[in-house]
């Protein structure tokens, strides 16, 4: 329960606080303000006795018999002198055009605020209550009730005369009345009654619970929630009654309606007023407390509670203690709660004060969040309701949030929030940066500074870079990598880095960062030199990106030392910028690097570096022998004599064998294989490659006295040399390893050759027959002869102009056509005719295939 704190400034009666609350995490539901202007002036000289509320204006009655019409700000718009004594009640119809007033001296007045109709009557007893018909403006509803010792209903007859009738009497003074639609509810000393004005029947009697309370000191509070729901508050008790229609079968002599109490519960304090708020209740309570010092009861501040009614109890939603003027002297009957249904405004009326309570809006919610230092929630609420808030700006809340985080020492969070809150406002960004500088937290805000839209002054970025340069080289390097080079004055930062390098010249982080700064400044030469010194992987990217090939002509060795593979690829890809000759010259003192370059060049193109092939022989022999033989095989430009000399000097047998064979000295090569390598398989392979009978003869002669060699020959020469030649030369009694297996293999190879030949013959015969059939089918097809064709001998049309005459035509397979009479006669020895043009012999494509006669 939130309690408003009482502030004492002079006397409590002169306090200007509307409603104050103790520190609580629970947000209040209502906000309060004192109705001032004309009301303040009235209550300085008089005291409020009653008030009624219309959507358009207020009507305030006083102890001195005055009635004031006020606007919603409390300004006086009209004044009526009704009586010299206390006004007990004021009633307005729904239109706000007619008002009823009753006073302690028995006067009753009902009059039109904008018309001349009036009712004046003075009774012989005080009139406590008055209620005009809600639709009094209609001619059929000119009715009102008054209550003193009895409840009277006044109606205007057709002659414009007023007649009265007694609705109830004999149970003490009528102290409260509320009229809604066709139902009138009133309270007397015994309880609450409801009267149906349509059926002229009293439909219920709700008895008073606590009869020990004086009804004049603790009056009943009535409130219609809607046209069928009445809320009764009396003493500490609350009852919610629902008016229902009685079923026709239950009527008999009973009223057509009855009342059911749907909820009943007790509160802690005495009820002075009730008002509905959606499905909840607003309750004004009179509070008495016992002093701890004197142990005597005293009047405490009244409370305004919002409760949720349940069937037999209630749930408190909020509770506020109100500091109204003169609350120490007030009694329960001195407080009234009036409300405006349209705007959810609640008026707490006391003799010396009128306080207005209203539901809190989004601005009030944000105020409360800011007061509780819940800035993030306030910012979120403002963003969600930015169209509805009037007193707050999102930016102001955001700035307050940043300041709050800084005060708490949460610098990183504060800096991160700057991105969202400051947005594209460059001036605010710069202001915040200077604030972070004052507290020594430039590093915290550096990751979040804008880098594009907006762009801050260069001085801001330079200030942060200097801060990092003094204390954090890695952070400085990170910012240089991440920030575009045009955000700050590059030359200023370069000079600052160079000054630091004077103290620590080998610092790799600073050197790398300086190279990046040189790159931003397009000073690529200096950047390249630093990258090469650091052996940094980005050096090749820098060269390619900025076309720095002219700058690396004298740095080729450094590049090769750093990464020979990447360097060679780059140099070969850009031969037009750095010639092969230049690279070879630069690498003259580093033959191992020279070999890497020339080897890659040879792999790409066997002819580009032909002038260096002689040099490459020595380089391969020295640094890469496994690739020497492939080089000798693929190169057609290397001098064979020079290569043979080098290979013989280094005793490279395989390479020497290849060179000897290439130079035509196959016998020497074979001899070297046999004598140096002792490898019969390689010798046989060599003999197969050369396919020279004399070479095979030399191989057999060399192997004839060596059984392992004979075995190798028997296993491999079956398809190249007749094995009989070798077998006949084997000396009798010589033991040859695996002779049986070798002979079996020779026989198997022979059988395989026979099978292959037979298979090939079958395939050849089948193909020949298939082709012959195809040719025969082709030759048997007809050939088109038309008027455009001519005789190849006489050159006249092949077909006669007169189709009736007989004719004879000969067409050859070569598509040449002749008149039969234009062909020479065939001899008896050779009856077959041939095309004179093609002169085909025997039976070829020029042989006759068709003779046409008619």
Automatic annotation (TrEMBL):
All residue ranges annotated as the RING-type domain in the record: 791-839
One matching Pfam family: zf-RING_Vps41
Primary subcellular site in the record, as a coarse category: cytoplasm
Protein name: Vacuolar protein sorting-associated protein 41 homolog
Keywords: Autophagy, Cytoplasm, Cytoplasmic vesicle, Endosome, Golgi apparatus, Lysosome, Membrane, Metal-binding, Protein transport, Transport, Zinc, Zinc-finger
Database matches in InterPro entries: Beta-prop_Vps41 (IPR057780), Clathrin_H-chain/VPS_repeat (IPR000547), TPR-like_helical_dom_sf (IPR011990), Vps41 (IPR016902), Vps41/Vps8 (IPR045111), WD40/YVTN_repeat-like_dom_sf (IPR015943), WD40_repeat_dom_sf (IPR036322), Znf_RING (IPR001841)
CHCR repeats: 568-712
Entry GO CC: AP-3 adaptor complex; clathrin complex; clathrin-coated vesicle; cytosol; early endosome membrane; Golgi apparatus; late endosome membrane; lysosomal HOPS complex
Gene Ontology molecular-function annotations: identical protein binding; microtubule binding; zinc ion binding
Organism of origin: Delphinapterus leucas
Gene Ontology terms: biological process: cellular response to starvation; endosomal vesicle fusion; endosome to lysosome transport; late endosome to lysosome transport; macroautophagy; protein targeting to vacuole
Location of region: Disordered: 1-33
Function: Plays a role in vesicle-mediated protein trafficking to lysosomal compartments including the endocytic membrane transport pathways.
The encoding gene: VPS41
Entry's family note: Belongs to the VPS41 family.
Compartment(s): Cytoplasm, Cytosol; Early endosome membrane; Endosome membrane; Late endosome membrane
Compositional bias segments (type: Acidic residues): 14-26
Membrane-topology descriptor: Peripheral membrane protein
């Amino acid at each position: 329960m939130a309690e408003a704190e009482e502030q004492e400034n002079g006397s409590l009666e002169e306090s200007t606080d509307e409603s104050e609350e103790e520190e609580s995490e629970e947000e209040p539901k209502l906000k309060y303000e004192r109705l001032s202007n004309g009301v303040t002036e009235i209550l300085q000289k008089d005291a409020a006795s009653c008030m009624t509320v219309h959507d358009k204006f207020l009507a305030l009655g006083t102890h001195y018999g005055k009635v004031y019409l006020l606007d919603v700000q409390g300004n006086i718009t009209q004044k009526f002198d009704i009586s010299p004594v206390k006004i007990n009640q004021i009633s307005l119809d729904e239109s706000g055009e007619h008002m009823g007033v009753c006073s302690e001296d028995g006067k009753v007045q009902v009059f039109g605020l904008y018309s001349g109709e009036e009712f004046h009557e003075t009774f012989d007893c005080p009139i406590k209550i008055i209620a005009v018909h809600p639709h009094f403006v209609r001619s059929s509803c000119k009715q009102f009730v008054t209550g003193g010792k009895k409840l009277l209903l006044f109606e205007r007859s057709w002659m414009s005369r007023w007649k009265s009738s007694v609705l109830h009497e004999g149970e003490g003074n009528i102290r409260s009345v509320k009229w809604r639609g066709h139902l009138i509810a009133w309270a007397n000393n015994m309880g609450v009654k409801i009267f149906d004005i349509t059926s002229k029947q009293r439909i219920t009697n709700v008895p008073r619970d606590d009869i020990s309370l004086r009804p004049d000191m603790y009056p009943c509070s009535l409130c219609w929630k809607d046209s069928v729901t009445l809320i009764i508050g009396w003493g500490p008790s609350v009852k919610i009654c629902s008016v229902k229609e009685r079923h026709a079968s239950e009527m008999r002599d009973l009223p057509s309606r009855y009342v059911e109490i749907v909820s009943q519960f007790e509160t802690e304090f005495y009820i002075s007023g009730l008002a509905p708020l959606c499905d909840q209740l607003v309750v004004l309570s009179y509070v008495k407390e016992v002093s701890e010092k004197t142990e005597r009861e005293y009047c405490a501040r009244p409370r305004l509670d919002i409760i949720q009614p349940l069937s037999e109890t209630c749930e408190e939603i909020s509770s506020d203690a109100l500091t109204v003027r003169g609350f120490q002297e007030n009694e329960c009957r001195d407080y009234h709660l009036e409300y405006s249904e349209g705007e959810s405004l609640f008026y707490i009326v006391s003799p010396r004060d009128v306080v207005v309570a209203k539901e809190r809006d989004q601005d009030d919610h944000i105020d409360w969040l800011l007061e509780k230092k819940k800035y993030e929630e306030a910012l979120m609420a403002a963003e969600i309701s930015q169209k509805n808030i009037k007193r707050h700006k999102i930016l102001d809340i955001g700035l307050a949030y940043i300041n709050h985080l800084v005060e708490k020492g949460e610098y990183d969070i504060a800096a991160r929030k700057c991105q969202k809150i400051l947005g594209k406002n460059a001036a605010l960004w710069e202001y915040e940066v200077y604030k972070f500088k004052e507290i020594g937290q430039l590093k915290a805000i550096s990751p979040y500074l804008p880098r594009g839209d907006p762009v801050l002054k260069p001085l801001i970025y330079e200030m942060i870079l200097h801060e990092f340069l003094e204390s954090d080289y890695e952070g400085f390097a990170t910012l240089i990598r991440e920030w575009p080079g045009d955000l700050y004055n590059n030359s200023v930062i370069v000079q600052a880095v160079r000054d630091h390098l004077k103290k620590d010249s080998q610092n790799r982080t600073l050197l790398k960062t300086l190279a990046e700064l040189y790159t931003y400044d397009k000073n690529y030469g200096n950047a390249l030199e630093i990258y090469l010194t650091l052996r940094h992987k980005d050096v090749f990217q820098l060269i390619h990106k900025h076309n720095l090939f002219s700058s690396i002509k004298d740095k080729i060795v450094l590049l090769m030392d750093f990464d020979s593979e990447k360097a060679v690829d780059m140099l070969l890809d850009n031969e037009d910028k750095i010639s092969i000759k230049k690279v070879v010259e630069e690498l003259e003192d580093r033959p191992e690097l020279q070999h890497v370059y020339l080897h890659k060049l040879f792999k790409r193109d066997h002819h580009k570096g032909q002038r260096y092939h002689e040099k490459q022989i020595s380089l391969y022999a020295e640094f890469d022998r496994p690739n020497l033989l492939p080089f000798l095989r693929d190169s057609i430009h290397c001098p064979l004599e020079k290569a043979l000399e080098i290979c013989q000097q280094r005793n490279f047998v395989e390479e020497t064998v290849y060179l000897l064979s290439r130079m035509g000295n196959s016998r020497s090569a074979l001899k070297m294989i046999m004598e140096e390598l002792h490898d019969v398989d390689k010798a046989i392979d060599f003999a197969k490659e050369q396919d020279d009978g004399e070479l095979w003869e030399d191989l057999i002669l060399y192997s004839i006295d060596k059984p392992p060699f004979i075995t190798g020959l028997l296993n491999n020469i079956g398809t190249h040399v007749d094995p009989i030649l070798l077998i006949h030369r084997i000396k009798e009694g010589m033991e040859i390893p695996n002779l049986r297996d070798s002979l079996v293999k020779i026989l198997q190879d022979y059988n395989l050759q026979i099978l292959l030949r037979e298979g090939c013959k079958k395939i050849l015969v089948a193909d020949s027959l298939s082709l012959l059939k195809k040719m025969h089918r082709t030759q048997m097809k007809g050939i088109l002869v038309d008027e455009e064709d001519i005789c190849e001998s006489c050159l006249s049309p092949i077909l006669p102009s007169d189709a009736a005459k007989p004719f004879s035509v000969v067409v050859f397979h070569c598509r040449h056509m002749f008149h039969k009479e234009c062909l020479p006669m065939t001899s008896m020895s050779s009856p077959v005719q041939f095309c004179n043009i093609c002169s085909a012999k025997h039976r070829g494509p020029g042989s006759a295939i068709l003779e046409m006669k008619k």
